[in-house]
Specification:
It comes from Prescottella soli. With about 240 residues, this protein is mostly helical. It is built from 12 helices and 4 strands, in the order αααββααββααααααα. The chain has a two-stranded antiparallel ribbon with strand order 1-2. Strands 3-4 form a two-stranded antiparallel sheet.
């Protein structure tokens, strides 16, 4: 487990970042025991309290257990991790993980229609007009990144109207994870953000208080980009298997 001496101003944050990256990056496997606090402190060039603080933060995320005697054991993030890990899993070493990106779009594909359905039932009367304004702004620009940002704001309004704290927190996490991908996914997301009429169909269903119509319209809007990225990933895996 290679560690790099800390040089940044915020020592506790740097220690936390390094240790967390190694836990979620597979450098240490589930069930493995980390180095002792003393040995980690020596490798990092920091104090033991800084290491202890970082380990406590990682333990609070469910990713390690500090056991009797001081041993720190790594947990399986797929069993113990939460949505707050998505942004870190998505971008590692400055590069986007395409499989994680696809999983985010898959989550949108199934959560988005349900949120639209709830919005059709619960939205204030003024919501449809506000959504229409967002779609007008979407139609007024050709910039692919700006269009994605407007689309995020569009969904932000729908999530508010759905009046569900669980969907709100899920959306917040997905948005935080998705925003770093705006430039990289511009081509893929064109299959969604260029379809102005599909956005208008979602708004129309919400306006007429049609939950089933809102669900169907939202799924119709979100499905193409998810399928496109999924197809690209499948092709990449096939090419990789042929080359081995």
């Amino acid at each position: 487990m290679d560690l790099t001496p800390v040089r940044r101003r915020s020592i506790p944050d740097d220690v936390f970042d390094q240790l967390l990256d190694r836990v979620i990056g597979g450098v240490v496997e589930p069930g493995e025991t980390l180095l002792s606090e003393r040995r980690m402190a020596e490798a990092l060039g920091v104090s033991r309290p800084a290491v202890r603080e970082a380990l406590n933060r990682i333990a609070a995320m469910g990713l390690v257990d500090v056991r009797q005697g001081g041993a720190t054991v790594v947990n399986d993030l797929r069993r113990r991790g939460g949505l707050d890990l998505l942004p870190r899993l998505l971008v590692r070493g400055g590069e986007i993980d395409p499989a994680v990106a696809h999983s985010i779009l898959e989550a949108r594909l199934w959560n988005g229609p349900k949120v639209a359905e709830l919005a059709a039932q619960r939205a204030p009367e003024s919501t449809a007009d506000t959504l229409d304004d967002a779609v007008d702004a979407l139609a007024a620009t050709d910039d692919p990144v700006v269009r994605q940002r407007i689309a995020l704001d569009f969904w932000d309004l729908i999530v508010d109207s759905a009046d569900s704290i669980t969907f709100r927190l899920m959306f917040n996490t997905l948005r935080t994870a998705y925003e770093p991908m705006l430039d990289a996914l511009a081509v893929v997301m064109a299959a969604e953000v260029n379809e102005i009429d599909r956005y208008r169909s979602v708004v129309a269903a919400i306006r007429r208080r049609d939950p089933e119509g809102a669900f169907a319209a939202a799924h119709n809007l979100l499905e193409p980009a998810t399928t496109l990225l999924g197809g690209a990933l499948a092709a990449a895996r096939a090419a990789s298997e042929e080359g081995t």
